[in-house]
Write a structure and sequence with these properties.
Elements lengths: L1 E6 L2 E6 L4 H11 L38 E6 L13 H5 L7 E2 L9 E7 L3 E9 L19 E7 L7 E8 L4 E7 L27 E7 L11 E9 L17 E11 L5 E5 L4 H4 L9 E9 L8
Parallel strand pairs: 2-10, 3-5, 3-14
Antiparallel strand pairs: 1-2, 4-13, 5-6, 6-11, 7-8, 7-12, 8-9, 10-11, 12-13, 12-14
Amino acid sequence: MRWQLLLGLSLVTVRLSGAGIAGVQDTETSQPAPQTNIETADLDGPSGVAASSAVAKPSENAAATKVPSYVIHRVNRKITMDGRIDEDDWKQAKSLGNFVFGFGLTEGEPSECKILWDNEYLYFSYAFDDSHLLGIHTDRDGRIPEDDSIEVYITPNPEKPTRHYCFYTNVRAALYDQMFDGDGKTIPKKNPGKNATGRQLSWDSQGVKVAVTIDGTLNKPEDTDRSWSTEIAIPFANFAESSARLPPKPNDTWKLNPCRHDYMGDGSCEYSQWAPTIPTTGSFWGPKLFGKVIFSGEKVSPNHSAE
């Protein structure tokens, strides 16, 4: 059975494992959360490594790592935001490749990421194997990294890196976003409201669309789940303060880095990312180490999936 839940701009599609309608109600309201290792949950931002003594320290002699690169092709038609990743354009797009695991892990549950674009949006798709689905937070600017989640750091103008952006989304399709200056300091929203505190003070993007499909049951560490996938569409207008050309022109180069939090049934977490910043910075942060993406003027085609 499949269920779709609309959460603001976020669409969640739930595939139930024989739980029926009551399973939806349990997942949404009454299932207890497994104990999360909060000490190692928050690697986001420049100070992520300092959040916990349990997080491994960066090596002073971290081996030089080649910065990965990727060509982003244009879509042939608008992406249907349903989290299913079943359009021909996604099938034809090339994957970024294997994610690299951090903090002593050399392998774990695999991730696949693809990126496309048009004149309005930058599109991401993610497909994750996941044996234990954890998702608690549904509020905007909530503690997304404490759930099974993805975060992507984006530097639209590597020549003038005075603006970096990060978009965090979880298995519940909730969104948390940040904008950083050139020194890695968070830039707050202009009118946060008098009652705003903590992450509610952070910059808010506009018009971001998130859709998620899960195959399994949320927050039941005693069973074994299968996977989840998500589609994210970020309007280029959100990068107006970056001094980058918007929308990009063919051959324009940006830097970015998708990173994943993958929680196990025992509350431990596997951290993985496309461009490995963890060996150098001890966190997901590290703009100089982010992967390079080149915008292509070509529309995605069957030839590109085999490149």
